[in-house]
Amino acid sequence: MPSAVYLDNNATTAVAPEVLEAMMPYLKDLYGNPSSIHTFGGQVMADVEAAREHLAALLGARPGEIIFTSCGTESDSSAIHSAARCLADRRHVVTTRVEHPAVRNVCRVLHDDLGYRLTEVGVDSQGRLDMDEYRDAVDDDTALVSVMWANNETGVVFPVEECAAIAKARGAIFHTDAVQVVGKLPVNLADSRIDMLSLSGHKLHAPKGVGALYVRRGTPFVPFVRGGHQESNRRGGTEAVPNLVALGRAAQLADQRIGDENTRVKALRDRLEKGLLATCPDARVNGGQTDRLPNTSNVSFEFVEGEAILLLLDQQGICASSGSACTTGSLEPSHVLRAMGVPFTAAHGSIRFSLSVYTTDQDIDRTLKAMPEIITRLREISPFGRGKPKTGAAKRSTK
């Protein structure tokens, strides 16, 4: 059987061979505790700090502004709870209707359990943030604004610098979930108004179980995970050294490969979209007419079920997703597509294809060969499709 075609890189990525090689010594011989006073532990601490420097370089940040965490979700929770505590006299939080659950659900806890006002700003039919609504939402009572840099389902990129400037003008702390951006788009926090930024290692070819939170120098911060003195007293717990070293190496590789993401990978994504629209009638690219991540494509196939498409793709060794891996199993249509106003018959037949630097031309060829037959087969048996015309040119959505 041919090797798998993996087009689910927004869910997780393969650990790069160079990253695996870098972390192995810390799983074997270099097992010292970085907090130990002896030289054996001190050597390990030096390597942790080198990893911090590599990640800071990727972000255009200072090493001291980087707090290592266990994942993007922890980073998001740390940022949101810290802002709420540091600006405790303010009782308003602003986010968007299309945030990842790691942000959306924490903001709702502040609202439901702690009585904060919560404003979730909407998007248009292309997934673009409603900036007029956003400007009206941020006020003098706003403690925190959390706006994702790019959407995990559609890849639509938000104007976070403009959003940060508006938040700062009102005295609010601005946080962005950049889990899907870091390693795919250039980031330069030295010239930014962003106060806090979350990222996750397993989205950029590091292992699962490691992330980071950027906290701009001078931004007030209260630790979320308390314990020992680690991370300059900002995050307690013995450092997971192999993972931290791995994230540092992954950051180095990402810095080298940004150009490939934005040229070769984007060209593969565009070829995939063009082929699907040409061979699968009644298809649409969600967010296809605005700025998106170079690796992400969310395509709706009307009158069929997305889960059935994924099942048949899987039988041919092709991995994709119906949206966020964190909401797999839900029978509800994507909250992102609902916020965009995508019709029910299209939202239920939406597939996210997400590529990486390891995606090949052959991967795209196999997917383009498989999809028309799958869509035709499902429409023949779908109750949504009975009696519906299956002709007409497919197009990018303008709704």
Characterize this entry briefly.
This protein has helices spanning 17-23, 39-59, 72-86, 101-114, 131-137, 160-169, 230-233, 241-279, 306-315, 335-339, 344-347, 361-381, and strands at residues 5-6, 66-69, 92-96, 117-121, 142-146, 173-177, 196-200, 211-215, 283-285, 296-301, 318-319, 350-354.
Task: Characterize the structure shown.
This protein has helices at residues 17-23, 39-59, 72-86, 101-114, 131-137, 160-169, 230-233, 241-279, 306-315, 335-339, 344-347, 361-381, and strands at 5-6, 66-69, 92-96, 117-121, 142-146, 173-177, 196-200, 211-215, 283-285, 296-301, 318-319, 350-354. It has two domains: 5-11 and 258-381, Aspartate Aminotransferase, domain 1; 17-254, 3-Layer(aba) Sandwich (Aspartate Aminotransferase, domain 2), CATH 3.40.640.10. The two termini are 41 Å apart. Strand 5, helix 6 (160-169) and strand 6 (173-177) form a beta-alpha-beta unit. It is an alpha/beta fold and 399 residues long. The radius of gyration is 22 Å and the shape is globular. The strands form three sheets. Strands 2-8-7-6-5-3-4 form a seven-stranded mixed beta sheet, sandwiched between helices. It has a three-stranded antiparallel beta sheet with strand order 9-10-12. The chain has a two-stranded parallel sheet with strand order 1-11. 39% of the residues lie in helices and 13% in strands.
